[in-house]
Fold this sequence. Notes:
Number of strands: 0
Distance between the termini: 157 Å
Shape: elongated
Strand content: under 5%
Number of domains: 1
Amino acid sequence: MTARVSDLRSSAAAVAPASPFVVRRRAELAVVEEHRKAMRARVAITILAGVFIALFAVAGSATHIVGQQRHLDSINRDIANEQDLSQKLGAQLAELQSPVRVTRDAAAILGMIPAPTPVYLEPRADDDARAAEVPPASTAAVR
């Protein structure tokens, strides 16, 4: 009882009413399996590409953050230097404006001498009336 596979297929096709589905089903299963393998490969490549892009984005953003931090550190260093300079200039200004230094430099550089006693001006009773007077026009101004 040896039968060939082709004889069995032809006899099965004659016996079964919908036998073309059986042959197509087997052929479709083989194609679907190949399609699934190709789809898995595409999904794997897409996932790997996504992971690569995500890692590249993380590395790029980390580089950007490091650059911004370096810039902020530079600005903070400049601010600290300017604050030190401001403190030094403030101390220098306070020393230059001190009354002791002003009187010392006035005497040494400008040759000024301190007044022996202060002279206070006292108003008189008729000062208000005299302040309202209009002085006469001078003849020198007319020429």
